[in-house]
Structures are given as C-alpha cells and as structure tokens.
Amino acid sequence: MDEINLGEMFAYFKAKLHILLIIFALIFGLGSFYVFFMQKPKYEATATVIVSSDKSNANLPGEVATNKNLIDTYTQVVKSHRVLDKVKNDINIEKSFDEMLKMIEVSAIKGTEIINITTTDRDAEFATKMTNKIADHFVKEIAKIY
Prior knowledge:
The protein is α+β, with helices and mostly antiparallel strands. Helix content is 61%, strand content 14%.
C-alpha cells in the first residue's frame, strides 16, 4: 500500500501553483465580467396596504378565521383581471396579463392585516409606477366590492 507523504503533496501543489492561480483568475474574471457587464439589474418596488374590516367585534374567535380568508381573497383580487387590466390601460403596458402576473408578488404578513404588493422590473421607475397603480386600483376595487 502506498503512503502519502504530506511534504511531497505540498511540493506537488507548489509546483502546480501557477496553474491553479491561472484557473482561479479565469473563473473569477469570467464571473466578474458576467456580473458587471452581462447581467441586467432588476429593481423591486413594494407597496404596503393595510386591509381591515370596520367591524367592532374583530376579537371574536370566528372573526380571526374570517380575517384570514378576507386577506387571502384580497391577495387574489390584486392579481385579478379586474385590477391588472385597469393598470395596463393606465400606464400603457405592452405586456400580456400573464407577463404582468410574473412581475408581481403579493404577500400577506402572517398575523396581520397587511398586504405587500411587489413589482420586479429592469426599470426602477416603471416598477414603482406599476406598483403604485396596482395598489390604487386594488383599493378602489375593494371599496366597490365591500
């Protein structure tokens, strides 16, 4: 059975150090080139909406489940044609409904009546404008529904 001598192993790697450094430099250089020149930045804009019922008996046991269902409903309203078609018309978006859905993330903060609406796009100004319009039309639609 062959024995591995650590001294010989270190001597081998020391002799091949220039090759290892070249490989490392190439990988680092290619990664840096991609990050700085090829990858396009994505911007996120987030609007926070507080949704609450006007009922004064919100502390009743059944009311907690109702509020959770209400927030789940609200997150679906944000992603509905009803809201997104109006946003599309307001800011003249050339994207389809499905493309718009891919740009939007709606999340409810657990244990609260807060919904975050986040839009991701390569243009920061457009992401902000779209997020604000979604929030505006969402609030208007909820007022019509309830």
